[in-house]
């Protein structure tokens, strides 16, 4: 998110490997900024099953409540994010995240059910799901 040297190394690696690959990351990250400056296609990503700080960063997994588990709550949050509505941050405030991609972590217990619920909710809300180019 904030480590310039690490972000630059990843940008260099992706550019050397295949500069046509779209790259995903948190909005406002050094990684996405440097990737965009290098001419890579950047995709702002949100995380369905993670709590956010008021600054829009992910709450450390070491803290309670960092990983969300209720598929219905997660699906509702994803619809809000996809439609430009605010979600509640870890401190109870409103945070607007406008992602082009929403990730469900595969290591979250119930990930498949969460992903299904998110897809169903997004589709029901009229969102168009498509690959990014």
From TrEMBL:
Superkingdom, taxonomy of origin: Bacteria
SUPFAM superfamilies per the UniProt record, alphabetical: Glycoside hydrolase/deacetylase
PANTHER family: 5-OXOPROLINASE SUBUNIT A, UNCHARACTERIZED PROTEIN YBGL-RELATED
Protein name, UniProt field: LamB/YcsF family protein
Organism: Angustibacter aerolatus
């Amino acid at each position: 998110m904030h480590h310039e040297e690490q972000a630059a190394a990843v940008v260099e690696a992706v550019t050397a490997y295949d500069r046509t690959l779209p790259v995903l990351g948190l909005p406002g990250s050094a990684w996405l900024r440097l990737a965009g400056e290098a001419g890579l296609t950047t995709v702002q990503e949100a995380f369905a099953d993670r709590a956010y700080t008021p600054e829009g960063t992910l709450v450390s997994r070491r803290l309670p409540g960092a990983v969300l588990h209720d598929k219905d709550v997660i699906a509702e949050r994803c619809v809000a994010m996809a439609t430009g509505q605010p979600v509640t941050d870890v401190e109870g405030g409103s945070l607007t995240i406008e992602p082009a991609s929403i990730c469900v972590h595969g290591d979250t217990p119930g990930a498949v059910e969460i992903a299904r619920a998110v897809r169903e909710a997004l589709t029901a809300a009229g969102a168009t799901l498509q690959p990014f180019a």
